[in-house]
Amino acid sequence: MEERVERMEILNHILVELSIEKAAAKLHAQRTGDLEQVQRVLDESVPLFAPKAVYTVSYVDEKQEDAVVIDGKHFQSKVLRKNLDEVNRVFPFVITLGPALEGKADTCDDLLEKYYFDVIGNLALLEVRKQVQKEIADRYALGGISAMTPGSLTDWPIEEQKPLFSLLKGVTEAIGVRLNESLLMLPRKSVSGIYFPTETNFYSCQLCPRERCEGRKAAYNRELAEEYGVLK
Ligand code: SF4
C-alpha cells in the first residue's frame, strides 16, 4: 500500500467505498426521484475519486506555554499544546481526493447536482481519512488517535499551514496538493493536519460554537472549551 520517500510515507492505493444509503442520508434524499438523482451523481463521482495521502513521523522538541515546536517548526496553539501534553511523537499528514471530482462539480450547471457532487466528495474524503487514520494507528500500535487541522479553530489558524507543509517537504510532487496565496489547499477536497495518540477521542468541533455546520463531527462542549482556555 505504500512506498517510502525519505521520511514521508505515500499512500496512493486507497479504496473508497461509499454506499448510496450513506450518500442519500447525508443529502436527505428520500423520494424516488431524488434517490435516482443521488445514485446517478454517485455513479459519476466514483470513477473520479483519486485518493492519495502522505504522512510522516515527527517529534515534539519543545513544549511552550501556548505553543509547541515539532521537528524544529513552531506551532502556536493552546489546544494543540494541551493535546500534546503527554505526547512526544506525532504524525503530520495531507490527504486528498484529487482534482477530478471538483473539476466535474465546477463545470456542472445544475445547482442541485453541483451540491450533490460537493457533499459526495466530502463523504468520500471522510472515508479516506478513516483509512489513513487506521493505517497509522495499526502501524504504530496506537490505542487511540485523533487529529487537529489548521484553520478549524481560531486558536489554530490557517497560517499554520506553512509550518505544517514544511514538515512534509515534497508533498506537492508526491500527491499533487499545494497551498494557494490564501494558504488554502488545491485540490480543494484535501485535508491536512497532525494526528496524535490519545486515549480520549478529540474533535475540534467540541470546541467550536459554530451553529448549523454540515461538517460537525461532535457536539459543542462548553466545559471542554473552558478547560482548553478557548471559551468565547
Ligand atoms: S463545527 Fe464545523 S466549522 Fe466547527 S470545527 Fe467542526 S466542522 Fe469545523
Protein traits:
alpha+beta; globular; 232 residues; 8 helices; binds iron/sulfur cluster; single chain; NADH Oxidase
- From the 3D coordinates, which CATH architecture would you assign? 3-Layer(aba) Sandwich
Largest sheet: 9 strands, antiparallel
Query: Could you tell me which ligands this complex binds, including any ions or cofactors?
Result: iron/sulfur cluster
Report the portion of residues in β strands: 15-25%
CATH first level: Alpha Beta
Helix tally?
8
The count of strands amounts to 11
Q: Residue-averaged pLDDT, rounded?
A: 94
What is the overall silhouette? Answer: globular
Q: In whole angstroms, how far apart are the ends? A: 43 Å
Uncertain spans: 1-6
Number of domains: 1
Layout of helices and strands:
Layout: E1 2-5, E2 8-11, H1 20-26, H2 32-45, E3 52-56, E4 58-63, E5 67-70, E6 73-76, H3 78-83, E7 89-96, H4 100-106, H5 111-139, E8 145-148, H6 161-166, H7 171-175, E9 178-179, E10 185-186, E11 190-197, H8 222-227
Antiparallel strand pairs: 1-2, 2-3, 3-7, 4-5, 4-7, 5-6, 7-11, 8-11, 9-10
Helix pairs in contact: 2-5, 4-5
The protein binds iron/sulfur cluster.
